[in-house]
Amino acid sequence: MSKSNHETKRRVCPWRHVYTFDNILRRLFHNTATIFGPYVKAGMTVMDVGCGAGFTSIGLARIVGRKGRVISVDLQQEMLDILRKRAERAGLADLIQLRRCEADSLGISDTVDFVNAFWMVHEVPDTREFLRQVHACLKPSGKFLVAEPKLHVSSDEFQKMVVTARDVGYGVWDKPRIAFSRAVVFLRA
Ligand SMILES: C[S@@+](CC[C@H](N)C(=O)[O-])C[C@H]1O[C@@H](n2cnc3c(N)ncnc32)[C@H](O)[C@@H]1O
Question: What is the CATH number of domain 30-188?
Answer without folding.
Answer: 3.40.50.150
